[in-house]
Design a protein that fits this description.
There is one protein chain. With 155 residues, the protein is an alpha+beta fold. The protein has a single domain (3-141), classed as Alpha-Beta Plaits (2-Layer Sandwich), CATH 3.30.70.100. It is built from four helices and five strands; from the N terminus they run E-H-E-E-H-E-E-H-H. Helix 1 (18-35) runs antiparallel to helix 2 (56-68) and helix 3 (100-107) packs antiparallel against helix 4. The model is unreliable at 140-155 (pLDDT under 50).
Length: 155
């Protein structure tokens, strides 16, 4: 089955609380489970960068919910298209707290074709490389996580 992915950035609503953010991510985890969607959500305190992957129908349904959400505005799509395989196969939605610089670097990186760098010399230069690096380093550090509804850390 071919997988699709979408990446976007947006501005968080001014009145978005940490508690509401946690609730939104928990709701996304539940929805994504039923839609077979995985991905990660970066948040720097005022902006989001989200990457979703899965079957086309699941991605379309999840993105429709995102577009209708009142928790953010100014959505800018970074890329949308086919991907060969999942990059986050075990994370229904991983929430990662990052600083403004890290989110900004990922947002302005090359999202063309959702490619990863071909050589170790280029490691970390594509948007997907940077996203994976930040998401995985936060996981290994035990930071920025959100719990799945079953109490397990969303990975």
């Amino acid at each position: 089955m071919p997988f699709r992915a979408i990446a976007y950035v947006s501005e968080a609503s001014r009145n978005l609380t940490e508690q509401r953010l946690q609730e939104l991510v928990a709701e996304a985890v539940q929805f994504n489970e039923s839609a077979d969607v995985t991905g990660t959500l970066l948040f720097d305190g005022s902006r989001f960068l989200q990457y979703l992957e899965g079957p086309e129908a699941g991605i379309n349904a999840a993105y429709a919910r995102i577009l209708a959400a009142g928790s953010h505005s100014g959505i800018v799509e970074l890329n949308r298209g086919r991907v060969g395989r999942r990059q986050f196969p075990h994370w229904r939605m991983r929430s990662v707290r990052v600083d403004e610089l890290a989110l900004g670097k990922i947002a302005i990186s090359d999202w063309t074709g959702f490619v990863r760098s071909a050589s170790a010399l280029e490691s970390g230069t594509s948007a997907l490389d940077r996203l994976l690096s930040v998401s995985q380093s936060q996981t290994e550090a035990g930071a920025g996580g959100i719990m799945e509804p079953d109490g397990q850390l969303a990975r």
